[in-house]
Each structure stands twice: as structure tokens, then as C-alpha cells.
Amino acid sequence: MQLLQELGEEAKLIAGGQSLIPLMKMRLARPAALIDINHIAGLSGIERHDGELRLGALARHADIEASSVAAAIPIVHDCAAGIADIQVRNMGTIGGSIAEADPSGDWGAVLLTLETLVRSFGPQGERTVTLEEFIKDAYTTVLGHDELVREVIVKIPPKHSGGAFVAFKRSAAAD
After folding, report:
1. CB 102 within 8 A of CB 81
2. Domains in the chain, ordered, with CATH?
């Protein structure tokens, strides 16, 4: 966090880059520096605790797809399994997807249908907000420039609940 404070608002955090790099290619993000957070311990867990699914910010989409713990909420598993292609699922993280608030991303829409909290931390300490409070607009969150998403917490729905994840993906026209 110290490096993020030193480099200021022009620095961006990166783990998988599957949300940030496309924004950079479209020139919607122009960070002066990128800070790799892949080696921060304790941010990649997938756990069930007190009726909640806790997804560390660095949990990869493929890890969520393969997790028997995450399967407690089938729509979460289905979302992870339906994200892009295997390369993106192996590199992209749930924390990065949520932090960028890309409206074309799958996680925001799915997690807004569930009781979801986002836990972040920074120099002022840790805070937890609902996902509805966290996402302010397209590509805009309440996350301060010197804060990091720590985990995504999803309340496990009651028995006999259901949901479905169906994505309509754009693809190049076949000749």
C-alpha cells in the first residue's frame, strides 16, 4: 500500500489485467505505473464461513469455477465457468473485475442479484460496503486511489433458491 501512496493517483493495481488492459487499449485508463499485487499473501482464498462465500480478491475465475466451496451458489460457479476463454479465466481475478466496474463484465451483474459485500483496505483501514454502494457507475467505484479490494463476500441464498447465468457473447462473424 505504501508504493501505491507514493506513486499517487496515476498508479493502478494489476493482478491478472483482464479488466484493466482492455481499458488501457481503449485509452479509458492511462496509468503512469502498474503495481503487481499477485504476491500479496491471503488474497486468493475461496472459503465458506458462517453462511457466506468469501472470495479473495486474487481468486482467479478458473479457481472459482473449480471450487466445490463456490459451487454452494451455482450461479457463481456458472458465471466463473462462462467468462471469456480459458486464458482469461486462468489469469483474471474477481477483485480486478469488481474494482474496474466494467459494465460488460459478468461478475457485477451476477453479484448484484445476490447479497454481496466488498471488503477493501487502505491507509485508513478496512471497510465493507454492499456491492450496490461500491459500484457508482460504469468504470466508477467508491474505491479510493490508495485502496485495494480485499475480498468479495456473498451470502449463501436459502435452500430452494435458484438462479441462472446466461450470457450472450459477441463474436466475429463466420465466413
Report:
1. no
2. 2-155 (3.30.465.10)
The amino acid occupying position 146 is: D
- 126-134 contacts, C-beta under 8 A, 24 or more apart: 126/150, 128/153, 131/98, 134/98
Instruction: Specify the residue for cell string 467505484.
Output: 141
Q: pLDDT tens digit string along 108-151? A: 999 999 999 999 999 999 999 999 999 999 999 999 999 999 99
Backbone φ, ψ for residue 6 (5° rounding): -65, -40
Q: How many helices (H) and strands (E) does the chain have?
A: 8, 9
pTM of the entire predicted model: 0.90
Alpha helices (runs of H) in the chain, residue ranges in sequence order: 2-7, 20-25, 61-66, 74-82, 86-91, 94-100, 106-112, 131-134
